[in-house]
Amino acid sequence: MSPSNDMSTFQATLASSRHIIAIAGAGLSAASGIPTFRGAGGIWRKYDAISVASPEGFKKDPSLIWQFYHYRRETALKAQPNAAHFALATFSLPWVRHTIAPGSTFTLITQNVDGLSTRAMEQTQRARPAPSAIVSQDEQPSLLEMHGRLFDVRCTSNSCGHVEFNTASPICEALSGTEKLIEAGVQDPEIPVEQLPRCSKCNALARPGVVWFHEIPKHLGVIRKLVDEADLCIVVGTSSTVYPAAGYASQVQRHGGKIAVFNLERSEGDEEADFLFLGPCEDTLPRALGLTN
Question: Where, in this chain's numbering, is substrate bound (predicted)?
Fold first, then answer.
């Protein structure tokens, strides 16, 4: 049986759901100008993933990796959350969500490292503070960044391991302007290691604080519990190819939960979903969540 694209049927399912999770991928941030990975024009069509997103790649060529992540940092700093970010952020507010799905819980599990979901939630909470008569009973987090954060900077020294949140632009002088070379596809300059970002505590070489290939994603214990409890899994902007996140929706379905996929185009596993909404998620998601007409 093919997935349904009927908004009213999905909204009835949403209203009756009690434990809702959303799994977000790069497509969530595409409308904000953040390049995706595997789609047309995606990052992995230009760069070998292991070369720029693995501990082995960093050990071999920290100059290349820091230029790549400097480019991503600069892109994210210029970007703004889009309507899909704000829809999920608004739905995360219990005093809003309980008018749509009474008594429900919600957690956004994002694979993205750009920080746009965090910014959307912070802005939404300021714009729509809780009514004084309402006290949230939610115990679980509303956002889990399972692949870390682009603006975390981590010391490579095992004896130190310091991590700090750093949005400096540029993060070090030697990287200034290299984002333009990355964008233009020009040969990356070789930057001496001693000029790359250093740990602010011990001065050892620092690395981007994201989770790379061959590393363990964050919050896995909490996520497993949420997946086990979920009766609705909303999948947004992901090709469902990177594990463990790619397996979460099927786990929800195996224990009787429903799956709703919001993607720009068809992707692997769509036929197994209960609902499929194709098109820009910044258009489809706010409508599906009952936040716009």
Answer: 69, 72
